[in-house]
Structures are given as C-alpha cells and as structure tokens.
Amino acid sequence: MARPSLREKIIESGVQTLHERGYSGAGVREITADAGVPQGCFTNHFRSKEAFASVVLDRYHQRTQVIMDTTLRDEKLPAVDRLRAYFDEITRWLEEAGWRYGCLVGNLSLEMSEHSEVLRSHLIEVCRSLTDAFADVLRIGQGQGEISRDLDADDIATFLLASWEGAMMRMKVDRSPQPIEQFKRVLFATVLQPPR
After folding, report:
1. Checking CA distances to 126, which of 61, 72, 92, 158 falls within 20 to 30 Å?
2. Helix, strand or coil for residue 145?
3. Predicted TM-score of the model (pTM)
C-alpha cells in the first residue's frame, strides 16, 4: 500500500490540530510537528495558513457528511429518528473527545469570522450545506405528517444548527454533556412534534 503524501498527512493531522488548538493557537510549526513532517513542507503544499484551514474545514465537513449519510439520509428511518440518530452519533464523537473541542465549524466561526474573509466565506458555504441537510429531512418529516408544518423547514434548520452549535459551545465551557442533552430534550419535546 502506498504511503500517504506529505500533503495528506498535514491535512489529516491538521483537522485535529486546528480542532484542539484553534486557528490562532496553531502555527505552522505546531501544524507540521503534529503531522510529523518537516516545517518546509507546509509552504510546498499550501499557499497560506488560510488556504490550509479551508482544506482542513473541507475534510472535517466530509467526515460530518459521512455521519449524515448514515443518519439523516437513511431512508429506512422516519425523519425524527434520522435527526435523533444524527445528534446521538455526534454526541458519541463529542464524548470521545472528553466534551472538550466542540465542532470545528463553530470554533472557526467564533474565532475567524472577524479576521479572515476567506474563511468567513468558506464557513458560510459549510453552514449552508449543513442547514440544507437538516432542511431536507425536515421537509420529509413534514410531508409525511411526522413534523408540524407550522414553521418553515428552512427556518427550523437554521434554528437547529444555531442551537446545536450553541449547545456545543456551552458543552466545551462546562466540559459536560449536560448542554447537549438539554438541547436534545427540548428539541424533541417541542420543535420536532407532529401536527396537533
């Protein structure tokens, strides 16, 4: 089996490095040291740290999409069960990290939206993709009478992503699953109810 390229090593390691240290806390020295590659390799593969962060964000988003494929897009499950499966799967991911790191999308949104137009624009695209995935399953649930049509699916999806990111932010501060569990309890007891 071929060895991964140095670029690939930097990207794969970079997901964890940026997730754990943040953009500002991870210089090129830390990024390459964590990847186990010479520091000079970075500039051979990335024109800037912003460009690198964009690639890392895409890789992280691809991993999220895999989870969405097995949960939100699982046509064997009713819509509400798909959403529950998605949040439960991400919760397992967060637990494995000791409730410390939250979501890279949310972390970069808080840290970089005022400092990098390149990353801010890229984060808008990623958030739109996440919101669209939620909206798709919500529309399915509404069409099947499983979720009330009182609210627009796009509005609910935007609310879901914002609330979920907020719960993960609070989880990081508390280093506790409680904000995540509270989010899920309220969501499934209120917003994701069938028509009355």
Report:
1. 92
2. coil
3. 0.92
